[in-house]
């Protein structure tokens, strides 16, 4: 079976340059085909838009080169793979539009496609190709993500207390959290812009209730990170229960602490 690995990037996320990369491995003796494109900075650019676009571009390239299927698609974006497989709903208009276009291409060519999520280590070539050319030349093939990260935890290794797709948060916040969870290194500005937008079902819950809902492990982590501040512990647990990964929830609270200090100066 022919295989397609795809990946997308947005640097910085959101609003930066988007890169799209893919590699086609043919079931015949044909040599693998690599492809890449990029798009100039725009407010609508995000990691997830880049991932979806990379998938669409990869499939288009496969068909242009005479691919008939069946095609086994691999990607390290759980969001894209889960939505293309019909496991998750698409709540964002921009992503829904690209998904609809991709579905239309698949249907038009009667292409049989299977989608499978893979960890980044198994997607290294597409990962490298997804980097903008200005960065790609500086990055070795063995490690395509060498820039300092706010979190040392890779997206595929992140731990979760709750699934954002079933959590009681607004559709806008759900999209934002999904963006964070699938991003390798959300920046300070992105964390600063991550807001509930008023009150939600978690906002007024006290620490004791949050600890019960989040569990002992998550509670222990929040206590270790913020030992002398129950309010900060509660804030971290709220973000975990909304669906933000454990490491990113901690980082979010730390960014909020820094912002608070700057306001007081």
UniProtKB/TrEMBL annotation:
PROSITE patterns: RNASE_H_1
Region (Disordered): 130-157
Domain RNase H type-1: start-end pairs: 1-139
Domain of life: Archaea
CDD domains: RNase_HI_like (cd09279)
GO molecular function: nucleic acid binding; RNA-DNA hybrid ribonuclease activity
Annotated Gene3D superfamilies: Ribonuclease H-like superfamily/Ribonuclease H
Name this polypeptide is given: Ribonuclease HI family protein
Organism: Methanolobus vulcani
